[in-house]
Amino acid sequence: MNILHIINGFVSSKLYKAFVEHLSVNIEEQTVFVPIRSNEQKGGNATKVTNIKIVYALVATKLIYRALFFLKISKSIKVLQKEIDIDEFSIIHAHTLFSDGAVAYKLKKKYNIPYIVTLRNTDLNEFFKYLFYLRKLGIDILLNSEKIVFLSEAYKQRLFDNYIPEKYKKALESKSVIIPNGIDDYWLNNINNSKKEIDIKEVRLLFTGEIRKNKNIIGVIQAIESLSNINIKYTIVGEGLNDEGAYLQQIKEMVNSNSNIELLAAVPKEELIVHYRNADIFIMPSFTETFGLVYAEALSQGLPVIYSKNEGFDKTFTEGEVGISVNPKNINDISKAIFHIIDNYSSIQQKCTKASKKFSWESIAEVYLQNYSEIQNRSNNAN
Q1: Residues 235-279 pLDDT 10s
Q2: Within this chain, do residues 219 and 296 fall inside the same structural domain, yes or no?
Q3: Chain-wide mean pLDDT for the chain?
Q4: How many CB atoms within 10 Å of residue 96?
Q5: Lesser CB count within 10 Å: N end or C end of the chain?
Q6: Domain that residue 21 falls in
Q7: HEC letters along 199-226
Q8: How would residue 64 be classed by pLDDT, with cut points 50, 70 and 90?
Q9: How many domains does the chain have?
């Protein structure tokens, strides 16, 4: 089996590197085609695994990536055909629906190579939502794929409810699979099985990640302030990671006026694990979120989680099983979720570490391998 991965976001996320490296145990050859926006990105997330080849291709500037979609796709295909022998691949995996899927769709038309496509946050919250002139293309990419991967049931439901015509739903449903992202092996190798008790005298909330408006940190602070009858300490870890300057300044002003809010710099995972283990609840009601690996990291350390309704992590587990989903725009909803977890802490907390094992890259790679094999067998039989 020889897989061609098309991954626009490869250099910006280590999860893709982890994904292909775990697959390499059972797949003979993988080539990762990585469109980049500047020469500085060449070599990003490079791997030492010998049966993985990464091809970095300077396809377009940042402006072209956003404004000239079809030019970007056309150039990607030209560079790909020049740099790679397309005929040698049995399957293409497009890791986003639009930016990667459009390339896979065109290649299938020309080379008759089957492809699998993954739907992510930007596909739903940017392309489908705002770029209405691309919606037909998105549906065509889905219809011509062999498999459609959703990171969660929530994203599948949103796509079908809002953008898929009734006449296509049955066909697309039959090829849809739910496969979450995995987390770094470090978290599952250092899982925290300790039973935790919550001390109502000081409930410790934690956020880890980029200090950006989308993460809704200020909304959490407002929710905490509305729970004046409960002493809550809120620790925010991530300054310096990828800050939005004006938003960071707002948070600093709130920290200066509230001794129960703590803002800390981003730290490596070996230090971050200490923050997880010192906390009671992980909270990140983002406005949009592909999946949010930090939720899974928190679960591995025995923390119940508060996450966004209808975004990436939602419906990965039964509501209330390991946490609560909230409307990120509703401060009262966030406050009620905090109170609910405090009130039901023991029953929720004891399920968290076991649930986190669902995000093992090893087991996720096995699921993908099964799907790849199914596609290859179907293709071989058709030929």
Answers
A1: 999 999 889 999 999 999 999 999 999 999 999 999 999 999 999
A2: yes
A3: 94
A4: 22
A5: C
A6: 2-182+360-382
A7: CCCCEEEEEECCCCHHHCHHHHHHHHHH
A8: low
A9: 2
